[in-house]
Specification:
With about 425 residues, the chain is α+β, with helices and mostly antiparallel strands. It has 3 domains: about 270 residues, HUPs (Rossmann fold); about 60 residues, SH3 type barrels, CATH 2.30.30; about 80 residues, Elongation Factor Tu (Ef-tu), domain 3, CATH 2.40.30.10. It has 8 helices and 20 strands. A 6-stranded antiparallel barrel has the order 15-18-17-16-19-20. It has a 5-stranded parallel β-sheet with strand order 6-5-4-7-10, with helices on both faces. Helix 3 packs across helix 7 and helix 5 packs antiparallel against helix 6. It is globular.
Amino acid sequence: MVREVIGDATRGDEWAVARLLVDGNRIATADTPGLDCSLAGLTLLEAAAVSGVPLAVEALAAALGQVFCADPQPGRAAVAMSGGVDSAVALLRAAPNAIGVTLRLWQDPAGPSSERACCSSEAVGAARAACHALGVPHVTLDLREEFLEAVVDPFVAGYAAGDTPNPCTRCNGVFRFDALLSFARRAGAESLWTGHYARIVEREGLLLVARAADELKDQSYMLSTLDPGLLERVRFPLGDQTKDETRAEAISAGLPAASRPESQEACFLAGDDYRNFLERQGLARAEGEIVDEHGEVVGRHDGYWTFTSGQRRGLKVAAGRPLYVLRTDRAANAVVVGDREALAVSSVEAEGRLYASVERAQVKLRYRSDLVSSRVSAANGGFSLELEEPAHAVATGQVAALYDRDAVVGAGVITRVQ
């Protein structure tokens, strides 16, 4: 079947377009102003390795991403490329039998530093350049609308409901890998490599995500919702080394990404405060009461959704002692505060999965929180936890990740705390 695809790219006042007639996985004819070479007769894989004027190559990439496929090849790896040093080193390990893929994701155009995000047009260009410098094809998948629906909209809805959602676990654990593994199949790749700092271990015949060697960069929590059934085709080549070792490897290989700054979390915020972002997304600030546990009014706020459990700063309440946000009440547009001791949580309920049968586990209730020992009980649609010591600042909407030694044995979104 012959298909026509059109891709375009803009930069300032400049514009480029690429028109392709594609027959199967081969280009029949091509109109690509700005590129010196002829694409007619090339496979889509070969065309994805074509370099040239950046804007023209970007237009070509926009066209290729709509229809890309390739015949299977033994040992080929699809490498998720962010434009940063971690994915560049992962690519270095997988080359030459590799194909790079970058997801173009939605980000707030009003954010102050949109070009630092891992899904920005600058990052996509850096990822493509890293691939082409090693003679590796690169494909861009434009998933901005899908990302907006699957990750950004639930983030906004979560805050509107009074929760504290974690968009990075939703993106890394579900959305991103679904898209990348689907691409890897179309690209004829046997495996998907990423620059995440995590490992894969086998426990009783089951593959599980596990903590990385570099504790400071460990991303197993962000990957905790990843379906273990997908791990057979996934590789984390950086899981056994430190970030410093990764950067040194990049410098030694002369990779330009060695000096690229770290991308920011919640990339769609584009460097802005989440409160400003939420306001632009339609969450209106409405003045309400700040009350203590007994219902006594101790102050005023300008929007319940601008506060989260455990928050101390920004309350502007003169109580003569430190007060912390215990919870928010959407229906009453109220923020409930109290002493730190009142933040203590001993039981947690979550919607999610237990990947292995466990009665006890170490649980992480936020990305930066300490591990807490817990008794685990399976429940319909998730699990419940009885913590063996109190945890503080536990918020609904965050993810509870369960560990048995270094392996993630379950994960779920927190729905209730007590």
